[in-house]
Structures are given as C-alpha cells and as structure tokens.
Amino acid sequence: MNILVAHNFYKLAGGEDQCVAAEVALLRAHGHEVTTYCLSNDAIDGMGRLHVAGRAIWSRQAVVEMRHVIRAHGPQVVHFHNTFPLISPAAYYSARAEGVAVVQTLHNFRLLCVNALLLRDGKPCEDCLGKAIAWRGVAHRCYRDNRAESGVVATMLAAHRLLGTWRHAVDTYVVPSEFSRRKFIEGGLPADKIAVKPNFAYPEPGAGAGDGGYALYVGRLSEEKGVRTLLAAWQGIKDAVPLKIAGDGPLASAVREAAAHNPAIEWLQGVSHEHVYELMGRAGLLILPSVCYEGALPRVVIEAFAKGTPVVVSGHGAMADIVDGRNGLCFAADDAQDLLAKVRYLYSDSSLLKRMRGAARATFDREFSAETNHEALMAIYARAVEEHSRHNLKIGAASAAL
Asked: Is 341 inside any structural domain?
C-alpha cells in the first residue's frame, strides 16, 4: 500500500513522536511504500507570534506543500498524526482536493481541549467538552498559562468546527483506547468514524528477569504525570523499596531535591532508550501516577508489559481499562497514600509479583504486538478508502441532480 504520513514534531520528543516513528518502521517492514511529510516546532523560534497563530488556524504553506507531495508520490491514504501548529487541519483539504483518503490519529485531546489534556489546576477537567467555543480554556489560560495563545487554539478549534472540518474532511479517526473513543463521541465526533487501535512496541524488546528489586518511573517530570504524588508516596517508603526515576522536565529540581534527602530515590538523567528497556526488564514494577487522563495507554506501560513488568497506575483514563489486577494494580489518582499502600502490598508478596510478570507479558502479546497492530492498521486504511469513495459518490450524485 502507498501511504503518506504527516506529523508535526514537538520540540521535546515524547511518546507521540516515538509512536509515529514506530508506525512508519512497521509499515515499511511489511513492504508498504511510506512517504513522510514532517515539520518540527523547532522552526517556530524563527517566526513571529502572529505568523505562528495564522499557521495554527490555516497553514497555506502546508496546503501547498502537501498537494505537491501527494502529486509526486500518489498515496492511497494520507495518515495525519499531530498537525498543531505548523501543518494545521487545512492540510486535510489538500488530500481531499487530490482525491486521497484522510486518516487522523488522535494521540491527545486537542480537538476537545485547549491544552489537549482535559486537565486544569492539577485535576481532570471537561468544562470545554462538546462546547462550540472553548471559552473557559481561554479564560483560565489553559494553553501555556497564556490567554492570547489559548485564544489561538480555541479559535482554531471553533473555526474548523464551523467549517465542518472535523465531521467531513476526515474519513476515519484513530484513537488509542475505548476511553478516548468515549470522550471524543461526547465531544461531538461522529461515532461511526472512530476506530480504536492501541499503541504498540516495535521492535519488540523481549521479556526481562525482574531481578532488580526496585520500582521504576520513566517519563516526563511534570505536574500532569503525577511526579509530586510519586515523590510524596516515597516519603513513606524511605529505604524499604528503591525507586529509580528516569526522565527530565519542569519538576527536575523537585526530583533532585527528593533524591538528595531520600536514599531510596535515584534520579537517572540522559538515559538511552536501550538502557530504559534494561531498567524496565529488571524492575519489580513500573509506576505511572498520572493525574491527567491518559487517552492512550502510555507507551511506557506497553513497553513495561513487553518486558513482563507489572505496573501500578492511576485508576482513570485508558489505564483503568487495561490494568486489571493481574498485570498490575490501579490506585486512586493523586492519592499518595493509596499509591504507597499498593506498592507495599506488591512488595510484600514476591509470588504475586512473579505471577503478574507472566500476565503482563500475556497482555502485551494479546493486545500490543506489532503484528496485531499492523492488521488493525490495514483494516483502518481499507475503511478510510471505502468511506472516501462513498463520500465522493454522494457528491457525484448530488452534482448530477443539479
């Protein structure tokens, strides 16, 4: 199959960027022809604010460039990932004009929320869900704590809602969990256009031994990831269970201070992806204490399952749908005491942790393997092409009747 993948990379590489790279590699490994149209937010540094705002709403440059790429390579499907801010939803119309099916993966809640997290003041927030204009997101400065920039995002969302972009310019949306699908339907996307395809790990890293005797956190050191909850929990653990933290971010200073005062905490900086896999394989368990909804089962949890490592996660969002008491435990989000209790419970029963390792790996094999993902992706592309053809037939019939 001939596929064009479009993605706007973030300045600080994260899970979405890794998912795009893995998906492109998977498609190419299965013999598909894959062309990429990628922009990077590093380019924003040389642009004025008004120029960036204009491109976020309607990027003429991306429209022109996308049409040139489509004409040069002739894809059957254009698969969009992140379009914010430099590609913009305007690029869907380039594909439409060239007669190509459009697929959009929704890695976050950007279409529903100014900050894309459904989070405000450290708590899940759905104030703008389903609203024609996300004015509360502007009033509360939800994007980068800046009212003007929040206004740009809200304008982009409202403009494309008014244009009918979300309903008519995309043939199939891909969401990574049933939880995410429910939220987007609540937010107004057509239910019959939304397909569920979870993230995956590729190449598959292989199971680990779980012989390290420590708990592990891997990810961005930020408020929404629940890092403060994690550090608070370890105040009650001290030397009982070692905690390794691999990552960087706005709360790096808080992690540094906690590690300086608590010998059970070790902060690992600049860890390579290969080293992360080694750490996961040896960890007794992985902890993800997100205070925000995770619309997707985070890639780090999937990688932990691939290594056979059970998880302790916040009991909301997509994580609550897949962590079932056999492959890991859920705790009450933002509740350090409950997190502490769950960790102590697991470390008091080594036979339970051992059984959980087998269940974690079985979850990966069943839900998140590359082969399962490829099959799902092919079905989604076929669905999008069929939907696109049906749309064109309707337009043709309407034109003939005039």
From this structure: yes
